[in-house]
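--- STAGE predict ---
source: upstream dedup step, 1 unique chain passed
mode: sequence only
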Amino acid sequence: MTNYPRGPQRIVCLTEETTEWLYLLGQQARIVGISGYTVRPRRARDEKPKVSAFLSAKIDRILALQPDCVFGFSDLQADIAAELVRKGVQVTIFNQRSIAEIFGMLYQVAAMVGEAAKGEALLDAMRRRLDEIAAQASVLKRRPRVFFEEWDEPHISCIRWVSQLLTIAGGDDCFAELALMPMGRDRIIASGDEIVARNPDIIIGSWCGKKFRAAKVAARPGWAQVNAVRDEQLFEIKSADILQPGPAALTDGVEQLHRIVMAWSQHHD
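--- STAGE serialize ---
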């Protein structure tokens, strides 16, 4: 019987989450190109060629790597995907925006590289830990109101999977209704006054591409009266840990959310 390849052998990952997942699956040898924004795992930056940003890609460099599959994320990379498809490259674009969709994407990738069983075992461990965190949060006497800020100017509230992880971790998203919106432009909060009015107990910043500055947030006009500012409950979670819709958010990201909420609850029982 002819020994045909089992799944793609030369993969380009246009975003970080598929790179991290392939490393966790022990299938990093299949990766021939990555996003320049990749920081998880750190070693990937030294081991793999960087061929894309988020909204742009070096098409010629990708083609030179002769990939048999390119993994991308969302409609924001649709133009890159279309150009590669026209060049004859197989492209798989995922569009996960919720916890369930992240799990689904991770399983699909694992199956594509012949590691469905290992992938399911890793995903089961993540599910168990999420259940444990939810159980611990369920006994809290009071759940804090949390404003999670993805960007500062303009204010952008968190995407769906972050809002869902926040709920699991024991907090209540101040702008849960905006989390249903898949695009950042639809989660813009027009005025800081609206945030003040919702009076979050905790503020978490994750400004993609720049460092969260708690002092800058606390100094916003009218924000001194906000519970989170008054009680010095302003925190940063790195975007690579929470805003990548993949393993990082389901592990390190939710753990950081949970620690912040549980620490707050110890002083507000």
